[in-house]
Amino acid sequence: MSVIIDAIKRLFTHEGGSKEIAKERLKLVLIHDRTSISSEIMEQIKEEIIQVISKHLEIDKDGVEFSLEGEENSVALVANIPIKGLRRHKKKS
Amino acid sequence: MGKVIVVTSGKGGVGKTTAVANIGTALASLDQKVALVDADIGLRNLDVVLGLENRIVYDIVDVVEGRAKLKQALIKDKRFPSLYLLPAAQTRDKEAVSPEDMIGLCNKLREEFDFIIIDSPAGIERGFKNAVTPADMAIIVTTPEVSAVRDADRVIGLLEAMEKEDSKLIVNRVRSKLVDRGDMLSVDDVLEILSIELIGVIPEDEHIIISTNRGEPLVNNNTAPAGKSFMDIARRILGEDVPMNIYTDKDDLFTKFRRLFKWR
Ligand SMILES: Nc1ncnc2c1ncn2[C@@H]1O[C@H](COP(=O)(O)OP(=O)(O)OP(=O)(O)O)[C@@H](O)[C@H]1O
Ligand SMILES: [Mg+2]
Predict the structure, then answer these.
(1) Which pLDDT band holds residue A63 (cuts at 50, 70, 90)?
(2) Is the Cα torsion angle B176, B180, B183, B185 positive or negative in sign?
(3) Strands (E) located in chain B
(4) Which of A83, A84, A92, B188 could form a disulfide with A58 if both were Cys (CB 3.0 to 4.6 A apart)?
(5) Which domain does A18 fall in, by range?
């Protein structure tokens, strides 16, 4: 009886299911919290990667984005580095 | 030699002081000699929740700074002959006590008491360090909410870094109806995320508000779901194997009737 009433109630309201959202948000935020990479270290990694890549490619330094992304139990450092053009290798004469 | 237990959380207002008062009285009613230590210096609360606020003469800072002996500062609870409170100072700040002071204090208390339960302030700064440093066991309190669980995770990490191996979780303010319809994290969800051992589940219970108003802990009240839950936790602390039960209020006919017609 009360099960039916609950089901009918749910039809007319938008309650239910917010806990799945809460759980997903929690998992994601904890991935960040638990990866104890400080913002200084992140900045440094970013600088060094930009240096290495700029040796070979012309990149848009202001457009570089770094983020930590997680799925289930693994974390990835994801870099988005926009390239302006390939640098032409000039032969030293 | 007594055991020192700290009750802590990270996030404020999740029920640490309520837990300390009720676990303390539950242990005392099980014939244990218990000292409750309020480490929330500057914002003392435990005295009020226990209804002992009018009996304070000396506080923890008086003891640390040598103005009073430990025995003089301990307040005996007349309702539970084996329950004592060491109150926090209200007019000082957390810097007035150091983690080393707390170790010294607790070592003295260990000689006299079976259990010393420390009420930690919210946060992860000095007051937290003071409360956690002398502890043999930590009880982390959370509610089934994103921010509280997140802060609990942080505190669990800090406790691990301090090599406090024995940490257990209380999930407080659980509302079974919300859990059932998928609008609140369940105890299992919280445990899956925090991977820590559970020591008890406390339902949302208006008896807590009533008992806090009165300054009377819940353990003598057999009809209060939260009171039964705290008693179970006390038994588990004593090593009993108590099945994990989420108690709910039995709805009276009127409530049932009202819920039937209330389409929220
Ligand atoms: N299970 C519960 N059901 C209903 N009310 C509760 C429950 N647990 C705690 N409360 C209420 O929540 C409020 C905060 O509780 P409490 O003071 O114990 O939290 P705290 O963690 O010690 O807070 P602080 O971080 O400020 O020290 C109080 O008003 C208390 O009565
Ligand atoms: Mg408190």
Answers:
(1) confident
(2) positive
(3) 3-8, 34-38, 75-76, 83-86, 115-119, 137-142, 167-174, 197-203
(4) A84
(5) 2-86
The segment with the largest mean pLDDT, out of A58-62, B162-166, B214-218, is B162-166
| A93 assigned to some structural domain | no
Cβ B74 vs Cβ B80: under 8 Å: no
pLDDT exceeds 50 at position B264? no
Atom 15 (ligand 1) nearest CA = B15
Domain count, chain A: 1
B73 touches B57 (CB < 8 A): yes
Length of chain A: 93
Q: What angle do CA A86, A89, A93 make, to 5 degrees?
A: 160
**pTM for this structure?**
0.84
Nearest residue of B to residue A21, measured between CA atoms: B183
Asked whether residue A92 is assigned to any structural domain, the reply reads no
**Beta strand pairing call for A65-71 and A74-80:** antiparallel
